[in-house]
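cron nightly-structures :: item 1 of 1
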Amino acid sequence: MSRCVIIGNAGISDYDRLRRELRPDDFLVVCDGGQRHLAGLRAVPDLIVGDFDSGTRPETETETLVLPREKDDTDTVFAAREAFRRGFRDFLLLGVAGGRLDHTLGNVYLLLWLDGHGCSARLLDDYSEMCIVSREAVEVEDSCAFFSLLNIAGTARGIEITGAKYPLAGGEICSDYQYGISNEVLPGGKARISLREGSLLLICVFRDAYPPAKSGS
């Protein structure tokens, strides 16, 4: 089955980067005010969802699901759950991080929900890529300026990091003590991350989006 791409209303500055991630067979779901990004992404939605409190309900033949404004799910969460109900198991989230911290955190936790339901999911913004590391090992390319591992639920145990400036063997990270921030892939190689129990949020910051520190800073 094709991948589901969900486009939210958070700010996007680097349309070129995100546009390169799109595939011809993606199923595109745009959430409410995320319609403002369609021109920059040169994207045509397959489904529009929202309560339209941040965007205008479009007059279109594209399938549109109008949601009540008083509801448990945000538009983005509803879009993900609806796509999951339709059988999608591979997700890319765009325009869902930045701006309001509550929405950003909610969408980060959406990655955890998708992972818990056996899905593959990535979240991209102008500066970084995020995903959940849980059942399968993940590799990080040296095109990443640095990467961080954050625990956003419970305790992760048996953490192994190889090919990085700060390796780890049999490590444990709890939600209340985050020491896995700002690691680096060894030049010319790949870092490999795995764990025995739990899950971690992996954030990879793009090298060309992170300016080097000025001399003397």
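cron nightly-structures :: done
The chain has a mean pLDDT of 91.
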